[in-house]
TrEMBL record:
The keyword Ribosomal protein is assigned to this record: no
InterPro entries linked: Aminotrans_V_dom, PyrdxlP-dep_Trfase, PyrdxlP-dep_Trfase_major, PyrdxlP-dep_Trfase_small
Organism listed in the record: Microtetraspora fusca
Stored SUPFAM superfamilies: PLP-dependent transferases
The entry's keywords: Aminotransferase, Pyridoxal phosphate, Transferase
Protein's name according to its UniProt entry: Aminotransferase class V-fold PLP-dependent enzyme
Domain Aminotransferase class V, residue spans: 95-386
Origin superkingdom: Bacteria
Recorded GO MF terms: transaminase activity
Cross-referenced Pfam families: Aminotran_5
Amino acid sequence: MVLSRRQMVAGFGALAVPLTQPQSLMKPLAPPVPPPAAPPASPDLVAAPAGVPPERLAEDEGFWRNVARQFRVSSDFVNLENGYYGIMPEPVRREYHRDVDHLNERNSYLLRTEYKPRADEIRGRVAQTLGAAREEIAFTRCGTEALQNLIGGYRRLRPGDSVMYSDLDYHSAQYAMNWLADRRGVRVERMVVPEPPTRQATLDAYAQALRDHPNVRLLLLSHMNNRTGLVLPVREIVAMARERGVDVIVDAAHSWGHLDFTIDDLGADFAAFSLHKWMGVPLGSGFLYIRRGRLDDVDLAYDDETYPADDIRSRVHSGTMDVAPVLSIPTALDFHDALGAAVKQARLRYLRDRWVHQVRDIPNVEILTPEEPPMYGTITAFRISGRVSEADNVAISDHLFDRYRIFTVRRGGPARGDCVRVTPALFTSRDDVDLLALAVRDVAGRFSA
């Protein structure tokens, strides 16, 4: 509503009330006003039909077209770079806009009175979905912040100890591990995950690395790495590390909401999660996990006194942050639950298999995830043999976009060279990945070394 000048003047006049007016004339503070009622959720939530096996439903394009209609996606290109940010489905996007408006209207009053108890309820629901206790998780602004707080705050290291990560771990987490050399006076070790990987070869590589470096006391482990999409057998590696007195911090930013698991399936005492990748929560949302009984092994964040030392939230201090993403989490979890983790996992693996199995016969196309379903989801990288430089792989991803309007991304970091990462999403169609398979055949010929 646009106010006229007369209305504005009248409004300012109304404010000019003597401060000494009788108490009986002063209006009491209005009670908290809840946000406007959300539209009914049921028409927007596409529920997986009961009794249909996830692997069978994964192939039902009619069902997944209905799911895709819940996402607003540009038709200018085929987006196969969904690992950076997993966009919100429409119910979440609308709820987020409502939460932004409600925050803007209620302002500091919401932050000081309504938000904290509501956030604690939401924290409980996130924990329940993970299979954890509310007291074991704390919200962060992203998975990166969660990793930095766990790595930087881990306090059991002593000068002369070592820490270790692999070539496939997230670069920001590698940087945080490197920082421990000065912060804690430790040695930093780097190992290489075998390529091509298999479950046994990967387990053997971690076992050998731990034997070769007996002073390692902290290991970074990516459940699903962001470079090639390889899914590690985390539980087994955590167990072998624990036998040697090594603690593990698990990076689960890409796996939660993508794969079907709970925290007990990982066996980890420390882990970091993103909510804005595969759970469809607005950007700026994640959380860290510290198993009950291990809280004392992580420093308070900057000697935080906002919460007691025995409260996990004292291990995070983000300052004043955008709380609207947190308030939108329940709607995102509703969307996730309506489909189910097993159904999402099956569809995402199906999309990966659909294009990979069409190009496996091409001699110079290297697929960097193995044909072992527990070791991959939908993220998969490929490399053209001999094309291992950054420039090569930027050129390949550029060609995919310029000629086929397929958006992918070059990834660096693997010890044997750069690659192109492909990341479908729930809204990706079978036709989209079939087009990619056709394009990869073209690339294999055009960029043959």
